């Protein structure tokens, strides 16, 4: 871990441990990737990194080749880390997920990676992908089976939902909002999300 020593001080300042469980959120409108770490009681925001490039506009990815970056709820496992990426370092989002497949959406090799260029992916700087990648790797080595990555078009406040009420993606975004709300209210655990009848179903917390 080349960045272990670099991250040691900010981790200590927030009383967070190397290898702590990770949760990730991306907000397209803000162009930010948030890294949350669990302190044993709840998830706390460790750092926010700029997303320097993603493809398309607000709204989900529908089809292979549409040059659109996805939105929704994804899982990252250790075998999805790629230390030999053409874009410095990367991890696969596992798109299409069960929801995407149920809705006929297609695509492949959708990543979060370095190099600040994107054709359907989310790109951050090489320096920042090294930090995120290392925190993921440390969490997996400490026993975390999968990391939840939730990708939202915007912060799903009532005001923002109202602002986008006439948008084509509004129905889909309404499926995302309950999970956003649950985490905003209580950060001790992540919401449990399943897919029922081609919709996201949020059960609460596990």
What order do the SSEs take from the amino end to the carboxyl end, as H and E?
HEEEEEEEHEEHEHHEE
Helix content: 25-40%
Q: Name the overall outline.
A: globular
The assigned structural class equals: alpha+beta
Write down the Rg. 16 Å
Number of strands: 12
The proportion of residues in beta strands is 25-35%
Structure characteristics:
single chain, 206 residues, alpha+beta, five-stranded mixed β-sheet, 26% helix, globular
Word description of this protein:
The model has no long low-confidence stretch (mean pLDDT 94). Strands 3-2-1-10-5 form a five-stranded mixed beta sheet, with helices on one face. Strands 4-9-8-7-6 form a five-stranded mixed beta sheet, with helices on one face. It has a two-stranded antiparallel ribbon with strand order 11-12. It contains five helices and twelve strands. Strand 11 (191-196) and strand 12 (199-205) form a beta hairpin. The longest helix is centred in the middle third of the chain and has 16 residues, at 126-141. The chain is globular. It has 206 residues and is α+β, with helices and mostly antiparallel strands.
Topology of helices and strands:
Elements (H helix, E strand, L loop, with lengths): L3 H10 L8 E6 L4 E7 L4 E8 L2 E2 L17 E6 L3 E2 L7 E3 L5 H5 L8 E3 L8 E2 L2 H16 L4 E7 L5 H6 L6 H16 L5 E6 L2 E7 L1
